[in-house]
Amino acid sequence: MEFLGNLEKIGETLSVKGKEAVDKAKVLAEIANLKGQINTCEEVIKQNYLEIGRAYYEARHEMPEVSFEKQCRAIDNARNGIKELQEKIDVLKEKKG
Questions:
Q1: Each residue of 21-35: pLDDT tens digit?
Q2: pTM of the full predicted structure?
């Protein structure tokens, strides 16, 4: 009889531990889901910040507000650099062909 009682206790313990493991897995899955939603929201914010910045630059890069002069000049310089590098590529392609 004692043996059967011990088996019963083991079975109950396994059942409880199994339920706890399932509950923890559900919580972890829900956390992962919520973190995924947070990441999506952050991407929406990031994309809209980029669009705001691009729109500001296109509208005001020639006469930006003082607080944006540095960034506008950096973009202008990078665009000029791209243009110069592309011209060098074009010259090299002409020599090759």
A1: 998 999 999 999 999
A2: 0.66
